[in-house]
Design a protein that fits this description.
Blueprint (H helix, E strand, L loop, with lengths): L9 E7 L5 H8 L5 E5 L1 H9 L11 H14 L2 H16 L3 E2 L6 H9 L7 E7 L15 E7 L2 H16 L13 H4 L8 H15 L5 E4 H6 L1 H12 L14 H7 E4 H5 L10
Parallel strand pairs: 1-4, 1-5, 2-4, 2-7, 3-7, 5-6
Length: 274
C-alpha cells in the first residue's frame, strides 16, 4: 500500500533476519524529523506464544531442555539486574511496555493509531514473526524494506552472539559443539532466509510493487551513499546530520517504542542475557 499521497503518517517496515546491521539502521532512522520508531514489537508477540508460553512444546524433550536452560539463565545475578532496569524504564517511559503486554491483535491496534505530530513510523522486525500473521499488519499506508546480508556472515555472527549468551562463563567457547538450530528452538534458524524471501515475494505480489532491498554490508560500509538513495526511494528528505548520533542510551530509552526488554538491550534474544 503506497502511502506517499496520504495525509496519514507513513509506516515503513524494516524486515530483516538477525545480524544484518538493522539496529544501527534503526538508530539512524530514529533521528528523522517527525519520526516514531518501534523496536521488534512482533518479536515480543512471537515470544509470548512460544518460549514464554508454559504450554508451548510441553512434553517435547528438546523444548523441555531449552526451558530448563532458561531457568538456569534467569537465576543469574546479571539477569536480575537487567530485569530490574527493564522494569524501571517501563515505569518511567510511556513508549515502553512490559513483555507480557504484547500480542498480535493488540499490536495491530497500536500500529494503526496515528501519533500526534508524526510524519513517519519506522518498525524494525524479524521476517519470521509475521509469516503466519499477515492479518495483523496495520491497515494503513505502508512501505516495506528488506534488509539482507550474506548468509555466511549472518550465521557466523549469530552463532558467535548466541554462544556468548548461552555459555557466558566458558573459558573456551565450544564452537564446534554448539548447534544453534538444536538450541534456539524458538527461532526458525534454518529457514530464516527462506521465510525472508517468501515474505518479500508475498508483499511484492499483494502489498507493494517495489519493496526496497538494502544490503547491510553496503549500508555500514558506505552509509553516505546508501542512505540518500534509500531516503529518496521512500520519499523522505535526507540530511547529513542523520549520520551523527548521540551515544546517550537515554535517547533510545525515551524514544524507541516497544517491549522494554528489547529496547533496553537490543542485543538480547530475550532468553539468555550475557
Amino acid at each position: 500500500m503506497d502511502g506517499q499521497n496520504s495525509d496519514r503518517p507513513l509506516r515503513v517496515f524494516l524486515w530483516m533476519v538477525p545480524r544484518t546491521h538493522s539496529t544501527v539502521f534503526m538508530k539512524c532512522l530514529s533521528f528523522v524529523d517527525g519520526a516514531e520508531v518501534w523496536m521488534e514489537p512482533y518479536s515480543a508477540c512471537h515470544f509470548n506464544l512460544t518460549i514464554y508460553n508454559p504450554d508451548w512444546g510441553k512434553g517435547v524433550p528438546a523444548v523441555e531442555r531449552v526451558k530448563a536452560e532458561l531457568e538456569k539463565g534467569t537465576s543469574r545475578k546479571e539477569y536480575e539486574a537487567l530485569k530490574k532496569l527493564e522494569s524501571e524504564k517501563a515505569n518511567k517511559y510511556t513508549n515502553l511496555w512490559p513483555q507480557d503486554t504484547f500480542n498480535y491483535p493488540w499490536l495491530k491496534e497500536q500500529l494503526s493509531v496515528d501519533p500526534k505530530d508524526k510524519k513517519f513510523i519506522f518498525i524494525k522486525e524479524e521476517s519470521f514473526t509475521i509469516k503466519d500473521h499477515m492479518e495483523y499488519l496495520p491497515d494503513v499506508p505502508t512501505r516495506h524494506v528488506f534488509v539482507i546480508r550474506h548468509p555466511q556472515e549472518v550465521y557466523t555472527s549469530l552463532k558467535n552472539s548466541l554462544l556468548h549468551q548461552y555459555r557466558p562463563n566458558s573459558v573456551q567457547f565450544c564452537w564446534d559443539d554448539f548447534h544453534i538450530g538444536d538450541t534456539v528452538l524458538y527461532l526458525p534458524i534454518k529457514d530464516l532466509f527462506k521465510i525472508h524471501h517468501d515474505n518479500w515475494k508475498c508483499m511484492k505480489e499483494n502489498l507493494e510493487n517495489d519493496p526496497v532491498i538494502i544490503d547491510g554490508f553496503d549500508l555500514t560500509s558506505r552509509p553516505e551513499v546508501i542512505l540518500p538513495k534509500f531516503f529518496e526511494k521512500i520519499g523522505i528528505p535526507y540530511k547529513e546530520s542523520y549520520l551523527q548520533w548521540s551515544g546517550d542510551p537515554e535517547v533510545v530509552y525515551s524514544t524507541w517504542n516497544g517491549p522494554s526488554c528489547i529496547v533496553i538491550d537490543p542485543r538480547r534474544t530475550q532468553l539468555f542475557e550475557p
